[in-house]
Specification:
The N terminus is likely disordered. About 40% of the residues lie in helices and about 20% in strands. It is built from 14 helices and eleven strands. It has a six-stranded mixed beta sheet, with helices on both faces. A five-stranded antiparallel beta sheet has the order 8-9-7-10-11, with helices on both faces.
Length: about 375
């Protein structure tokens, strides 16, 4: 009896040790949880398979160009350790628009980027980037209608899209409601990428535009659709059909995505700034004098971090008059500078509407940071 009891205890002990070891391995295995910390980007090469997309100069096909660019963007992003890339297609196959969105949603992606090429019966040229929105004129609607017509090639498209009519303006406008909360972030990403096209690639800037694209409607994250250029234009058709052109576009799109991620990382203040923020909270009962504090300079701190960014508006969601100050190994980014407290409050509210919800006011006197609360008390 004692030997049997000893044997049972021994077996249970082994089981417990194995279980504890297994649990410890799970919680200590960084690879097992790496995906939760990854920034997930879904790259979508437009068209494919039986759908060639637009056909341009010297018979170049949109589906081939889009796939080549997307694969190169993905390869560049995958070199970043904290970015996970998912492709809607990696070969010349047909993937319906509904499935492309499902892939992104299932992956709980942080970004969805769809790459296409433009075409026209003239020698129109230039790059443009689109987001899902209702700011559509008849020309924008025609662009969206051309891209959305792909669903007619799909099996059971009426069931998948619940009666959506790609030729109906009312149907297109109805798409935007689900994506509305991501519109600002989509515009932010689109602006960064579009700026790269016009400055680094010297492409004609056709701007960031809004229209009702089905492929963007299907996703529940910031999403953009890139029209790299007009393959019906002789010069652009040759450029987009070349290895050099495709490489340049992929590098530019990659740069835009990286800048977007960097900006997200700057949207929150650091721990040491929280202390300053708490110390600078003004008393709600304090009556603030509308007059200026001649010897005090107010600024709005919108972000801080280890990355050094150009103080251009596209890096800060359109905000201008940004100052960058290096303190130790980090950088602090300030919006505006004024001795008028009412003006700085307005700038703080503006920063918050742009997404910098942690933005707070700081005060300087003779170049030294001082307590905002002390300044207000003296007033």
């Amino acid at each position: 009896m004692n030997s049997q009891l000893f044997y049972k205890i021994k077996i249970r002990t082994k089981f417990i040790l194995i279980f504890v070891f297994f649990v410890a391995m799970i919680f200590n295995n960084s690879e097992g949880f790496a995906q939760k910390n990854d920034f997930v980007v879904v790259l979508d090469a437009g068209h494919g398979g039986k759908d060639p997309g637009k056909v341009g100069y010297k018979n170049v096909k949109e589906k081939d160009i889009a796939l080549s660019i997307v694969l190169q963007v993905g390869k560049l992003l995958e070199k970043q350790g904290n970015i996970k890339v998912i492709f809607t297609r990696k070969t010349d196959v047909f993937v319906n628009l509904w499935e492309r969105g499902r892939i992104a949603n299932k992956a709980d992606a942080d970004l969805f980027v769809s790459v296409h090429c433009n075409a026209h019966n003239t020698q129109a040229s230039g790059a443009e980037t689109w987001v899902l929105g209702t700011h559509a004129n008849s020309q924008n609607f025609e662009v969206a209608k051309a891209e959305n017509s792909v669903i007619l090639l799909e099996d059971n498209y009426k069931a998948n899209y619940k009666g959506f009519d790609p030729n109906s303006l009312e149907s297109v406008i109805g798409l935007t409601l689900m994506q509305e909360e991501y519109l600002d972030q989509s515009i932010q990403l689109a602006s960064l990428i579009q700026d790269g096209f016009s400055t680094k690639l010297a492409r004609k800037d056709r701007g960031v535009k809004q229209a009702g694209f089905v492929v963007l409607h299907q996703t529940y994250m910031p999403s953009i659709l890139i029209e790299t250029g007009f393959i019906t234009n002789v010069n652009e058709g040759i450029y987009l059909g070349s290895k050099v052109g495709q490489q340049k576009f992929s590098e530019s799109i990659y740069d835009g995505i990286i800048k977007y991620i960097q900006q997200l990382n700057l949207n929150s203040v650091e721990k040491d700034d929280i202390v300053i923020l708490n110390n600078n909270l003004e008393d709600k009962n304090t009556i603030v004098n509308e007059e200026s504090f001649n010897d005090v300079l107010f600024k709005v701190q919108i972000a801080s971090g280890s990355r050094k960014l150009e103080t251009k508006s596209y890096n800060f969601k359109g905000l201008k008059n940004i100052d960058r100050v290096k303190i130790g190994n980090s950088y602090k980014y300030y919006l505006g500078k004024t001795s008028n407290y009412s003006e700085i409050k307005e700038l703080q509210n503006l920063a918050k509407t742009k997404g910098y919800t942690s933005a707070f006011i700081v005060a300087f006197k003779n170049g030294e940071k001082i307590s905002v609360q002390d300044v207000l008390k003296k007033s």
